[in-house]
Specification:
Length: 381
């Protein structure tokens, strides 16, 4: 009976049911896995000890990436036979490489060089064997198609950029998980609408895993961090989604995103990319130090310093990034160069608006207090 069901069941004809099932499976597995990870990390004292850069004050388990990896791989394994098996196996290969690199970094220390080599190898695996790459600039600055080898190296650069940009925003409770969840949700809709069920399945599996993770990541008592294991895995998948979306749009002249895919990708990843370029600029040109030296100059750190809570900071950044995405979808009719220019302008204003607002509010509050103190002094006299 079960064999008859599978012989007659088509994921493509039941896409919505299929995706709901993949989501439920990922969420349940992650939800059941995290308590075990918490137990082991606390018994073995595999905790992150706060230092001068930390935004937390208590020792916290950092192996949440194990649960994220496990749930995604189980979904891909169980659904692979009915989808694009080659693609799913290659993605799992890349994820596995980064999983062990991240795990080593969380448990001991992994050099930046070895992490970089591992990221390159995982990216090359997908680029070469699936030929999923950015084939051109869609006439950005007049550039259309790139020569093959330049296309390969540029796609590699995008992979490394997105993986590490995502890793850098993992500094406030719920931020990395929420940003990854929202970006994955947008990609899920895009892949579902284009009929790419394999990519939609990976997207929905990541959503399920991140939802289960966020439940504990934002908990006051049983907190867990995704660590480098999780940030590299999620960053790698977001990079893969981005490049896959741009590639499938650029190779389909009938796609409504044929020209606009780079702008939409920029909008979805706006916060991680903007924060990374900003922090590198500050470290290199202002502080005159290595761009890879960790500090507390990220935008989310500035929000905290201005008086926003962790939850408020996460909420503001996620909502702002969603607004940037909506702006991008409403500019599809414009020239691509114009879209990117306006996104950079609007996005920068939106992300710095909360800081400006807090400054104005503090100034107003201070003036009001001085005015009230002056009136009291006059009344006493």
């Amino acid at each position: 009976m079960i064999q008859t069901f599978f012989d007659n069941f088509s994921p493509q004809n039941n896409a919505l049911i299929w995706l709901i099932g993949a989501f439920a499976l990922a969420f349940v597995i992650a939800h059941q896995t995290f308590p075990s990870i918490l137990y082991v990390t606390m018994r073995k004292r595999l905790m992150d000890v706060p230092d001068s850069r930390s935004m937390h004050i208590d020792k916290t388990p950092t192996l949440g990436g194990i649960g994220i990896f496990f749930s995604i791989v189980v979904v891909m394994t169980t659904t692979g036979a009915m989808l694009n098996t080659k693609l799913l196996l290659l993605v799992m290969g890349g994820l596995t490489i980064l999983f062990f690199l991240g795990l080593k970094d969380d448990l001991t220390v992994l050099s930046a060089r070895n992490k970089f080599i591992g990221q390159l190898f995982a990216a090359v695996l997908l680029i070469v064997f699936t030929d999923t790459r950015i084939i051109g600039f869609s006439k950005i600055f007049g550039v259309e198609e790139l020569p093959y080898w330049i296309s390969i190296f540029f796609t590699l650069f995008v992979y490394i950029l997105i993986i590490n940009a995502y890793n850098l925003i993992d500094g406030v409770d719920g931020l990395a998980g929420s940003v990854g969840l929202v970006i994955s949700a947008v990609f899920l809709v895009l892949f579902y609408n284009s009929g790419n069920l394999s990519l939609a399945t990976i997207s929905v599996a990541l959503i399920g895993a991140l939802l289960a993770f966020l439940r504990l990541n934002m908990s006051a008592r049983r907190k867990i961090f995704m660590g480098d294991t999780g940030s590299m895995i999620v960053g790698f998948l977001l990079a893969f989604f981005t490049i896959s979306f741009i590639s499938q749009s650029q190779t389909n002249v009938d796609s409504e995103y044929f020209r606009a895919s780079p702008a939409l990708a920029l909008a979805m990843l706006f916060y991680p990319l903007m924060d990374t370029f900003r922090i590198f600029f500050i470290r290199i040109f202002v502080l005159k130090q290595s761009p890879f030296k960790a500090d507390k100059n990220h935008i989310h750190h500035r929000y905290i310093q201005m008086g926003y809570t962790h939850l408020q900071t996460t909420f503001i950044i996620v909502i702002t990034n969603l607004i940037v995405v909506l702006i991008a979808f409403n500019m599809l009719h414009l020239n691509l160069n114009m879209q990117i220019g306006l996104l950079l302008l609007y996005g920068t204003i939106l992300f710095f608006a909360p800081i400006i607002f807090k400054r104005k509010f503090h100034t107003f509050k201070k003036k009001r207090e001085l005015s009230l103190n002056g009136r009291r002094s006059s009344a006493v006299k």
